[in-house]
Amino acid sequence: MVDVAVIAGSASDGEIVSKATIVLDEESITYDFQVLSAHRDPEELATYVKNSEAKVFITIAGLSAALPGVVASLTEKPVIGVPVAAGTLGGLDALLAIAQMPRGVPVACVGIGNGANAAHLAVRILKM
Amino acid sequence: MVDVAVIAGSASDGEIVSKATIVLDEESITYDFQVLSAHRDPEELATYVKNSEAKVFITIAGLSAALPGVVASLTEKPVIGVPVAAGTLGGLDALLAIAQMPRGVPVACVGIGNGANAAHLAVRILKM
Amino acid sequence: MVDVAVIAGSASDGEIVSKATIVLDEESITYDFQVLSAHRDPEELATYVKNSEAKVFITIAGLSAALPGVVASLTEKPVIGVPVAAGTLGGLDALLAIAQMPRGVPVACVGIGNGANAAHLAVRILKM
Amino acid sequence: MVDVAVIAGSASDGEIVSKATIVLDEESITYDFQVLSAHRDPEELATYVKNSEAKVFITIAGLSAALPGVVASLTEKPVIGVPVAAGTLGGLDALLAIAQMPRGVPVACVGIGNGANAAHLAVRILKM
Amino acid sequence: MVDVAVIAGSASDGEIVSKATIVLDEESITYDFQVLSAHRDPEELATYVKNSEAKVFITIAGLSAALPGVVASLTEKPVIGVPVAAGTLGGLDALLAIAQMPRGVPVACVGIGNGANAAHLAVRILKM
Amino acid sequence: MVDVAVIAGSASDGEIVSKATIVLDEESITYDFQVLSAHRDPEELATYVKNSEAKVFITIAGLSAALPGVVASLTEKPVIGVPVAAGTLGGLDALLAIAQMPRGVPVACVGIGNGANAAHLAVRILKM
Amino acid sequence: MVDVAVIAGSASDGEIVSKATIVLDEESITYDFQVLSAHRDPEELATYVKNSEAKVFITIAGLSAALPGVVASLTEKPVIGVPVAAGTLGGLDALLAIAQMPRGVPVACVGIGNGANAAHLAVRILKM
Amino acid sequence: MVDVAVIAGSASDGEIVSKATIVLDEESITYDFQVLSAHRDPEELATYVKNSEAKVFITIAGLSAALPGVVASLTEKPVIGVPVAAGTLGGLDALLAIAQMPRGVPVACVGIGNGANAAHLAVRILKM
């Protein structure tokens, strides 16, 4: 059993994933890492999230960035979203997609590409 | 059995839904209408989409607007997305969320609030 | 006779064209490819579109990106538009120009530079 | 024969048209006024532009605003474009569509909704 | 002792505050509410945050929206930030100010004006 | 005496200047070229504009890009403005500064970095 | 002789002017007020600025907002600029025009419509 | 005792700092330079600002850029803010954070990355 589940929407998000896992390692937080797309792997994603014993989810996605919101709809645990600057708009698309969630399905959005802060936020939540 | 399935993410999207259904009615296209949120009703949405015999989906959503992409991941049929200006950003958030889909899961995005064009596009596809 | 007509507004859009044609080739969809500008070649464009036997049009354009809309005004068939990040604004200009069509002349807009999704959308339409 | 041809893309652009024609009247510039959409009336538009004896074109359009560019591709005379704030983005869409023309097909873009300046610019050109 | 400290940067943020406290009341979460500006009341704010026994902070601010980040620098507990559309930019200013925090000082940003989701996120964290 | 006066706000705008002068040379239009800043050389600029016998002004500027508007306030002749992508915002700053002129002082704005279209527009005006 | 010269680019900026003068009155700072457009009244503006004995200039302008920069080029005294939300873009145009000045001609930009802060900044400078 | 206190929010802002200090050196203005983050070093920052005998503060920060506003809340002296293009949005985030200060706590914002103009503005203030 791990404390945090880290999910990236694409294998190309690796650099941002590392920024998160370096901090988790430093803080001795255990985690599991998966690449699962909300759009391409919806069933595997649902199975993974529902069976995970992690206490907090860190989700990392670019472009239309549905992953954080979909994870938040599959669990009642806290979900952190990291927008990735994956296209030509500097990540503004992913930032808006992750922050502008409808009422009742909250995602904790951090800064564009800021995997480190996603981990620091998870640490704050876990240390409560 | 209907030709088009119209799905709105929120009951508050009714004005944009009407713009689409008026055109469908004029063109004598049969349709079914549902309010199903990608975030709040993921299982009902999946059941509905997988069981639908519609040939084309029209999806209408504001803010982070995950609905069109999620529907596109649940079906191999054409999915049209209509961004709604639901918050304070004039619908730019929804436009980016619907247009900027990852490779392999296409959504046909039309203009902000342009339910009419979603219907006109469905008509073009159905008349092929 | 081909299934898809691929039209780029400029010879410099070649990289995005390739993203579309690779998918069409993989899916064994036949296509014709032309470089025709809505602004510089309006008559050749009109002749080509009106005489084409393709069932779906994929149009690729940057900057003010009038091509998709002009093609949609010349045919009753489905028209897909791909915004290209051709200038210094990351393609936001082309995205808005392609998505924000007036009522009655629909274009199916996909993501900036996402030629692959234009092709995937064409496949969905053709397989109906 | 008139000095200026004023073309609006939609009947709903009337307020901006008036801002232009008031100035033209004050300056005793003769003009003809038409509502012709680049997308809905392409053939009437082409016929009108090619037969017009006006020396300068003022074109007024919102949303994807293809009208100014299409007129500029149909004539070698100066074409002025006025972006209209027709949707929910404050006219940023129309501004970019009118300003960001490809090389070789120039449009003289003025400010959003600034029909008066379109007329003042026409006056400067005509008084040369 | 309360579970949540709700801090608004300005008395004019009351409508957004209510969206949060309605949810907290529904969920029987206890909270304390203060109006404290990061810029106008920095010392009272520091005293309040450091002495608070709340487990989670909900911070609500518009414009340059320094409040969430300043609170996050004063405590090691989780801090949620709600951007308010206080000026003429629809809250884009506050959204960027709250989301784009430097590494090491995380804020959990929710949507513009979405006080309800701030409370729902706090509930998820508290229920862990 | 020359047909066109080309004024750049900064020596660093040379690449965009060349795009204009190449077209003017091709079209055998005579021109004079100056680097004069609206902010750093206001008096030389006023003297130059008022004494110039050119029929059309092409003005090229980045950032807050006051040059085109200031020239338009110094002459009754047509003034064309070219926004330069000089900073980190892709030229959006200069585009807005040049397009959004107040009523009565018109500038003909072309696309970001599009010196060629400034020259093509000047040619259209001169050939009237 | 007054401490501050307040210049608005347009009579329609009166509401923002009042926000500044209320603060100046409260702080017993003497001021002179003029409506002078950088574009429509360049010579009166130059005469006024060069003859003014004010120690600080507060300049208020919307749209392309050249006024603050032009004043800064006419004097070596501190110039404060207030962007006005005069058009349909919420004042983003004026904010960029006032902030993005070229090197050597500084303007002290405050928030959109924030006449009060312009006055508060003037007070800080005068109290040095 | 120095005339100007230059504070950067991060050691990575060095290039922009140099643009300011080169001008201060040229103008023979004495200054002190510190790297102090509003978020990571709030107490050192408060101590430094309150004990500083500088007459003007130049503050340099990227992303959510709280530094200028926090300094302005700690002193009654003039505070100049320089937005840094530190992330993927070209500095638009920092520009808005620095310019859009609440009433009563003014910051004099200059252009993105324009350390030189911050220094020039300080010179104007000091020479009064």
Automatic annotation (TrEMBL), chains A, B, C, D, E, F, G, H:
Root EC class: isomerase
Keyword tags: Isomerase, Purine biosynthesis
GO biological process: 'de novo' IMP biosynthetic process
Residue intervals passing through the bilayer: none
GO terms assigned for molecular function: 5-(carboxyamino)imidazole ribonucleotide mutase activity
Known function: Catalyzes the conversion of N5-carboxyaminoimidazole ribonucleotide (N5-CAIR) to 4-carboxy-5-aminoimidazole ribonucleotide (CAIR).
Family from the record: Belongs to the AIR carboxylase family. Class I subfamily.
Name by which UniProt lists this protein: N5-carboxyaminoimidazole ribonucleotide mutase
Organism in which the protein naturally occurs: Methanogenium organophilum
Taxonomic path: Archaea, Methanobacteriati, Methanobacteriota, Stenosarchaea group, Methanomicrobia
